[in-house]
Each structure stands twice: as C-alpha cells, then as structure tokens.
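Hey, resending since the last one bounced:
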Amino acid sequence: MRKASSSARTGALAAGSLAVAAGFCLSGAASAQARLYTEVTNTHLPPSLAGPCMDAAAGDADGDGDLDLALAMEFQPNILLLNDGTGTFRGTSDRLPRGVHDSEDVAFADFDGDNDLDLVLVSEDDRTDELYINDGSGRFTDASMRLPTDDVSNALAVLDLDGDGAPDVLTGNIGTNRVLLNDGRGGFRDETEERWPQRGSSRTQDLELVDVDADGDQDVVVGNEGQNQMFLNEGGRFVDATARALPDRVDETREIRAADVDGDDDPDLFVANVRFSLEAPPRDYLLLNDGSGVFETAEASRFPEDARNNFTVQAIDLDRDGDTDVVAPSTDFSTTPAAGDYLVLLNDGSGTYSAAAQGSVLPESADGNGFDVEAADFDGDGVTDLFLCNRASNAAAGSAAATGGQQRLLLGARVPE
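The structure tokens again:
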C-alpha cells in the first residue's frame, strides 16, 4: 500500500484532510459549510467509484484545457477520469493499459517531449513500475520497459534534475532511493550513484520537492519509517543535509507537505505519521523553518492534530483568508466496516492552528480512509476543489464504499467579498 510498509500499507499526497476555528457559532458553521465546499460525488463522478485508491494526480490528459484525474490503485486496474470542463468526470480507463500492479504513487509529465502528458506510476509489493505514453488524445500505451529498476517503491517525484528541459524521476524505495534521468525521448537511465549518494538503506514512504535553501532549485525531503531526511540539490546532485536541517527523531512517516505557514516567505513542513511497524507516536507535527533551511518542531499547541493514523496531509487555504490551512484525513482499518474522517485545521495567520468543527468547512459527508487529497480547480471557476482519494479497508464484511473506499469530489465556491 502506498506510503506504508508491506505489512501495513497505504500512502499519500494529498490535499484536503483536517477539520472549528475558534469563534465559529453554529449558524456560522452552517453557512461556512454551504459557502466553502459542496460534495458532488453522486452527480460528478462515475457511479460505484470505490476501492483501494492510493494516490491521485491531476493533469490535462486529453489536451482539452481542463484537468483530468489519474488514480493509482492497489492491485486493481488504474483509473483515468476525463473532465468535461465543468468538474464532471467520466470513466475512461479503457484508455489505460489494464495490467494490475501494487500501484502506490502516480504523476503526469511530458516525458517524451511531444507536448502531451504521459503517466508514471511506482509499485511496492510486485516491484513493477509503469510508464504510459500518451498519443495526444488521452490514450496511453505501455512503455514500462524503459524504466530500468525493479525496486520496492512507495513514492515518486518528477523534476528536471540535470537542467536539460526533460522531466526526470526520483523513486522512494525500501532500500535505496533512485535517480532516473530522462534522455528527452522518454528513455531512462539510473544515475543514482552519481547524483544521489546515500549512506545505508532507508524505508522511504514519501518524497517532497521544495526549495528549502532559496537557491532556485528543488531539494528533496524524504519521509521514512525511521529518521526523515533532507537532501540539498547542488548542481543536479543531492547532498545529505539531514543532520543540520532536521530534528533527530524516529517516526513512521507517510507524507511530508511543504508550505509557508507563518508568512515569513520560507517553506515549513507538515509531517503525517502512522503507527504500524514502529513503536513511534502516530501524531502529526509541524516543522518551522528558521529561514536558513533548518527546521525545528513547533510546539504541540500550535498544531493540535490528535494521535491518529494519517497517511496524507494537504496544505491549502481552505477558508480563503490568505493563509495555509490543513486537511488531515484519518484511517479506520478495523474489522468492522467503517471509514476515517477528515480533520480540518485552520491557520490564524501566524502558523498557529485550531481544529474546525466537523461540517464547518468540509461537508460532514466527506469521510473515507484518505490516502491523498488532490487540490485543483476542476470546474474552471478559479476556486480550488478537492478530490478525496480513499482506500477501502480490509474489513471482513462490507463493500469498498462502506469500508472507507468511496472516492469523493468537493467543489469549492467563491466567497463573497
């Protein structure tokens, strides 16, 4: 499962899970719910869209100017949803190869330089990463043989590491994380030894790209089972800065999300944790940047996220007040059919958060075992919407939807001035 170990699996990236800001009265909460987000799952998504969604990526797959969705599914065929421009999606998964893998993470990029978006996915248990090349109309062919590795992978990131204009791929693995350099035509070679030297092995669950040292290139923060890591990009080569930059602590991290939470123009980090294979607390926390790329743990009172299993966290201005709020979904993998919830934490503008009352920002119906929250403007109205990628549990009874695997779409509404 994405962003989890093989024994207790799930992952990521993504954009909408936490939940009252102090001072919200009941009438205010009700109006905020109606004003901010409306669930349109039943009218805007294909029926019965439920199952083990591990990650979602938004991109214009068919070149019609709106954002479509690709879903990485765990041991089920991956899913392509095409947008009609209004935020209404139709299932077109016949446009994707129908192989079944333990797909954990997914990303769009133009890998072969023909001005359309291709897809890359990484897999964990069956060690079969996938590369799908777009014909320009949103139909994809399998080119996975161009990927030269067969690692146990939970995470990926796409960036132009060597500055040649072609997107390269980083994979986060159990063992050694990899650099796969693109030749500009969608062919890849492993340049890990030259470009990402690492000491020992890691159990990586997430890769977050962010310019932590303000030098204009993308560094990488690595979320691990164990010590998280920081690698600085120095001319297309990653250098380990963990000892200087991050606190010394053991976590079972599933996602790290970068955002400027306190308005000081440098990126801070949210860390989402679980407790499955390590005796480490599952509580999420906030790391504040001192301005030089050194991070310190914020006081727990500034980020009051309770100790739940969170496979993802998303940073977005949910209440449209100009600062970065948080959505942090929890998971419920008990044997009784159930679903986790989505907690919203609202920022007071200084990087201090308070938990929003259930239903005051996101609809109360927005539940599920969240592995990713994809934040994008799906209906073209200039307001960010939320797609909730949920993973069904392994409950002995109950449908995929009943066990937390219902995918959901929330459309954002403009807030009157």
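The longest helix spans residues 26-36.

Sorry for the duplicate.
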